[in-house]
Inverse folding.
């Protein structure tokens, strides 16, 4: 029902010229800015285009906030599902470009905008990335024959303590932006416009430390810099090899990627009782500088060849197991794009905080699972507990103003 209401709103130009102009990312931002007060913070106008060969929010540098929501597809028909997914893309296109929200008198109907970011909806580096879980390809919507070849439900790995209520899901929406209010505004908008089509299953809100605090990768909640060693996103060849799907997939699914999302609780009370030296040996890096142990700078190579017996960096250190850096394991590299999360105290008065681990890869088994299996039994497992997440296929991007993410799946 709410999907139809949006069509009416847009059809009746109820969102105003700003919203229509906002359908051309970038151009809209500059034009619309003249109509309203200039934002106090220039980062509010940073716009990342929604359309493109690949979806945004995968290679882009992480802004400081994220919300990852997994939905169940609850509509009765394939047509309603397709309309709902089109709506997610239409709203993402507008929200990521920015527009002037309608704040004036609008009669008796629901208010057109939650208003929580004010009359001007700035892009604020917002990206909205859409994915499909394996369950979407069951019998309900007649999509079984079109399932991406590498998509399956996330298995339970050794040392996992998965909670069903925060695992899996039909549709994933990852929202990233500079500020929390931008994310909440976008989430409320999308939730309201897709009510009856997408039912929430689980949600995790993530954050990174302020980049003003120190240079290099931001710290995770174990206090270590996280995100230092990653494949070069500017190298198209490497991204084609490690991230983007190709001819192995059905035509509709080429140029997409797979996301492994893992909600990994950190047992911080226990961790904070461990000596600094032991923590560093478990990770394999210097806690203050982020450098590989025995090296000077964060970006230095760990140089395992000069340390074959693990005297400097133990053979079971997290970074050494995750990526031994031998020719045999380079094909299992993954692109990590994680956030920290922090929730309520649990029933035992322990802090519930950890890592919203997100990695992107072309092949879940050959990459994510190969890394995860190498990490099984690492010393760090005593301090981390995976509780949720899922595997999702992220289709290629929307190709132009009329297209939507996943459209080719439904033709
Ligand atoms: C709460 C759980 C985890 C914590 C606290 C953690 C922490 C870290 C830290 C501190 C680093 C070193 C800095 C960096 O290069 O980014 C690192 C690197 C890495 N981690 Fe994790 N990690 C966790 C889970 C995982 C998982 C689940 C995987 C994959 C299955 C993974 C794969 C990697 C990889 C591939 C690297 C880079 C290694 C290299 O290229 O040298 N991590 N992690």
């Amino acid at each position: 029902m709410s999907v139809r209401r949006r069509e009416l709103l847009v059809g009746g130009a109820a969102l105003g010229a700003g919203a229509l102009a906002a359908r051309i990312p970038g151009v809209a931002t500059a034009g619309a800015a003249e109509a309203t007060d200039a934002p106090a913070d220039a980062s509010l106008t940073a716009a990342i285009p929604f359309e493109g060969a690949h979806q945004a929010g995968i290679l882009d540098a992480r802004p400081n906030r994220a919300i990852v929501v997994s939905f169940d597809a609850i509509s009765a028909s394939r047509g309603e599902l397709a309309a709902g997914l089109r709506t997610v893309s239409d709203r993402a296109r507008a929200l990521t470009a920015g527009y002037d929200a309608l704040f004036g008198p609008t009669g008796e109907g629901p208010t057109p905008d939650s208003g929580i970011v004010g009359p001007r909806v700035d892009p604020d580096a917002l990206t909205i990335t859409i994915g499909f879980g394996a369950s979407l390809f069951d019998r309900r919507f007649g999509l079984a024959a079109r399932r991406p070849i590498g998509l399956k439900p996330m298995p339970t790995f050794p040392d996992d303590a998965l909670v069903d209520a925060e695992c899996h899901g039909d549709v994933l929406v990852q929202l990233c932006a500079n500020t929390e209010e931008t994310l909440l505004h976008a989430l409320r908008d999308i939730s309201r416009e897709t009510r009856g089509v997408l039912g929430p299953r689980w949600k995790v809100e993530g954050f990174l430390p302020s980049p003003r605090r120190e240079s290099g990768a931001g710290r995770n909640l174990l206090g270590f810099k996280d995100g230092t060693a990653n494949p070069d996103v500017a190298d198209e060849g490497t991204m084609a090899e490690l991230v983007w799907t190709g001819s192995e997939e059905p035509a509709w699914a080429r140029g997409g990627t797979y996301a492994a999302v893992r909600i990994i609780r950190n047992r911080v009370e226990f961790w904070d009782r461990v000596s600094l030296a032991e923590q560093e040996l478990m990770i394999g890096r210097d806690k203050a500088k982020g450098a590989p142990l025995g090296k000077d700078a964060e970006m230095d190579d760990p140089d395992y060849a000069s340390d074959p017996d693990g005297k400097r960096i133990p053979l079971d250190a997290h970074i050494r197991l995750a990526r031994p850096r031998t020719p045999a394991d380079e094909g299992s590299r993954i692109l990590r794009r994680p956030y920290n999360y922090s929730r309520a105290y649990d029933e035992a008065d322990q802090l519930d905080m950890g890592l919203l681990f997100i990695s992107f890869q072309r092949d879940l088994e050959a990459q994510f699972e190969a890394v995860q299996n190498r990490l099984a039994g690492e010393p760090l497992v005593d301090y981390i507990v995976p509780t949720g997440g899922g595997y999702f296929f992220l289709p290629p991007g929307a190709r132009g103003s009329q297209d939507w993410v996943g459209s080719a799946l439904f033709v």
Remarks:
- The two ends are 23 Å apart (CA to CA).
- Residues 78-97 form the longest helix (20 residues).
- Residues 217, 220, 222, 224-229, 262, 264, 266, 283, 285, 318-319, 322-323, 334, 354-355, 357, 368, 371-372, 375, 384 surround protoporphyrin IX containing FE (CB under 6 Å).
- DSSP finds ten helices and eleven strands in the chain.
